[in-house]
Amino acid sequence: MSEWTPSRKVVLEAPGNPDRYGVGAIRALHMFGPVIRERITRFEPPTTLQYRLVSGLPFREYTGQITVEPTETGSLMSTVISFRTIIPGTQILVAIAIRVASAGAARLARRRPPPR
């Protein structure tokens, strides 16, 4: 994840069950400012990852879902994020992070050969 997101480092703070990185796992994203913690709420490899914010950002009811679907020419990755702001205007941080992560994921996908 740190290869394609603004996170400098991602640490698994608590494993999920039964999959270590699955439902119940808590991951800490080290970017700038406070550490952002997310809990995985749905994990269906290789297509779906859903999470909710535990701490670190000024938002309420923050949830996200990443879905990967096959296409004729490769894959389509979709991200849906829902949240309520506590501090007006802070939603711009999410927009910037999504743009940076999307560009990073696209760069990484171009560098790696498709699976066989």
From TrEMBL:
Looking up InterPro entries in the UniProt record yields: Polyketide_cyclase/dehydratase (IPR019587), START-like_dom_sf (IPR023393)
**Which Gene3D superfamilies does the entry link to?**
3.30.530.20
Q: What is this protein called?
A: SRPBCC family protein
Q: Name one Pfam family in it.
A: Polyketide_cyc2
**Biological source species:** Mycolicibacterium senegalense
